[in-house]
Amino acid sequence: MQIGLIGLGKMGGNMRERIRRAGHTVIGYDRNPEVSDVGSLAELVQGLDGPRVVWVMVPAGAATQSVIDELGELLAAGDTVVDGGNSRWTDDEKHAEELGAKGVGFVDAGVSGGVWGLQNGYALMVGGDKEHVERLQPIFEALKPEGPYGYVHAGKVGAGHFSKMVHNGIEYAMMQAYAEGWELLEKVDSVENVREVFRSWQDGTVIRSWLLDLAVNALDEDEHLQKLKGFAQDSGEGRWTVEAAVDNSVPLPAITASLFARFASRQDDSPQMKMIAALRNQFGGHAVESAK
What we know:
Residues 160-287 form the 6-phosphogluconate dehydrogenase C-terminal domain. It comes from Streptomyces graminofaciens. This is Phosphogluconate dehydrogenase. Pfam families: 6PGD, NAD_binding_2. There is one protein chain. The chain is an alpha/beta fold. The protein has two domains: 2-155, NAD(P)-binding Rossmann-like Domain (Rossmann fold, 3-Layer(aba) Sandwich); 164-284, N-(1-d-carboxylethyl)-l-norvaline Dehydrogenase, domain 2, CATH 1.10.1040.10. It contains 13 helices and seven strands. It has a seven-stranded mixed sheet with strand order 2-1-3-4-5-6-7, sandwiched between helices. The longest helix is centred in the middle third of the chain and has 29 residues, at 159-187. The chain is elongated, with a radius of gyration of 20 Å. The mean pLDDT is 94.
């Protein structure tokens, strides 16, 4: 299959490679000419055979809207656009309507896998009409992890990004729990080897997880996280999850508290946020701030 991919950053670049390894043709475009296959969006579209498929992997909001607007002028009826970034689900409905007026299909794909996706595959949560989703099945199969899991057609347009948003909200709460436990262990005099306590949890316990493995990786690199500043950004999905909970009258105390904890990290150098920052860097390559 042939596909255009816009946005070749930490995830997009690895996705291009994984799709190519599966035997598909990828034409990639990025504003950075050192990683781009073509010089413009127009050149990318011209290089694809119809009906064309273009996958967008750029930051949510204005950047995605700009690309969608340009693609709307370049593509033709029968083509399909996939937004695989972290767009808000309400934007998906708008983009589907805008492109649909020109006969262009739209699919939203929540993508999880971070910097490890090339090696392990990407979990995919997809929203859109059945005909558009089925057309993209070979690409989804190339990106997903091996085995029966890691992909779902979650529902209609917006369902993919809504599902990914909830996934990220849960991620916030899980990381917060590990961070709080780590700070408490570090605080008491009786526990002399906190890193190895975390390592002991990796087998045979109910809290073992990939996040726990990444926490151990981070502690192996910096045992007491002394090199990090206790500051952690929020990427937007945590806020959107809490807002959606309010709109739907669903109580989310753990996820809400974890979001507010990140806000608190911007006031003081928080020990818990050292662990949150370390975990975000481990799974997603997110930037960290060094301790002064």
